[in-house]
Amino acid sequence: MVLLSLTASHRELDLDALERLSTGSSSVGRAVVGACGPVAGAVVISTCNRFELYLDVDAPLSGDAVRHATQHVAELVAHSSGVTGETAARSFTVRTGQEVTEHLFAVASGLDAMVVGEREIAGQVKRALAEAREQETTSKTLELLFQTASRTSKRVGTQTELGAAGRSVVALALDLAEREVPPWDSTRAVLIGTGSYAGASVAALRARGCTDIRVFSRSGRAATFAASHDVQPVDSLVEALADADLVVSCSGARGRAAADRPGDGQDVPAPQDDLHLAVVEGDVGGPAALPHLRTDAAPEASLGHVLDAAGLVRARERAADRAGDEAEPRPLVILDLALHRDVHPGVADVEGVLLYDLATLKAHAPAVAHDVVAQAQAIVDDAAHRFEETRLGREADAAVVALFDEAEVRVRAEVDVAVARLSQELAARGEPGPQEADVDLVARDVRKRVHAELHDKIVAVRARATAEARAAEAALVRDAEALTAEASDRRDADSGARR
Which of 16, 52, 249, 468 has its CA 20 to 30 A from that of 407? Predict the structure, then answer.
């Protein structure tokens, strides 16, 4: 079994490129497992700043096989997202073996996040595995990999200051909004969306003293969410915005496939109505790349923005009418936390409105002390090393089993010889033949001696099998690095051509 990952993140791609690539990502895992025979399992992590595909490949991989697998998966991603296969292929960073483990553990621990140390990603990693289980695309190796990643994340959270810092995209967004809104106990907040980020937003707002929280959702889930989180549901977004100070939008509904839409004007009833993030490392290009979108991808087209400038203008007009001649309408801060933007960029041009989106948050993400990051990285490195030792040890199990099978054949032969000799000795003394207890005693003595002699052979076989596995994976890493370097060169060339 070989671990292979194809990843992309905010570090290599702009958010527009990630948004295009992540469209339809929920179906990629099923597609890969169904279409690629050697792929025994697949888990997809799709968040606001990454789209990652983890594969368990039940076949030996050469450099050509890695290239072929990457191209095949890129075509499937392209089919789901509406970009060209070439665009998808050059957007990926390819990892194999221990690099896969190290990367996932770092991601789960918040070390590769837009806001270093954010804790939401730990929940997203767990949900990715849960969704793979529901879709029946996971495997024994991926189960162990992702469960160990979650345990590693918990260790980082409890043993370092990184976990105690309370860092998150939501917290950073509220920090920026705090400068512009009234005191939190007087702030009127509206949430758009009912997924995990909406729940995190409710908790973060309450922690700061905000009590006037309302929720809107095009999916019709607002009432259920409101009842479970003790907030107020609203049916009219325009009406709610008319007297709001703060909007936190995190439905990600625009990224859902139109083919899954229950009806015009409705939100898509998806497993979670929150951020739809994607990981693919590379550059798909800016607006100039849009003409390359596939013309046959219409069924997968994105839904419209939840909030556009026209709707917001109507809300601001109502706010002005209520204020009358006595005062200007209260300013409005909008936090768009969805990768597939809920809020149309033109909203930023509406008078009295301040819009923060993920690109803004990325630019304001605070740095973390080097020693804190180093401590967390040490935990990640140790966990990854231990996992790989266990995984590579399992790779040697087949050779060890063969040794035990061979030893068992020897045991049976020697027991037969020993029992025959004992029978002759007993017969010569005129005594009855060996009893069952006598045979069992002979068998135990022979097996103990043979297995004791086997110990050194097992150690040698494990060492040899592990070394061979390491050498093979090292070659794969070199091939994957070469493949990623080629894709990076193409991205740089494309970027230079656009400039």
Answer: 468
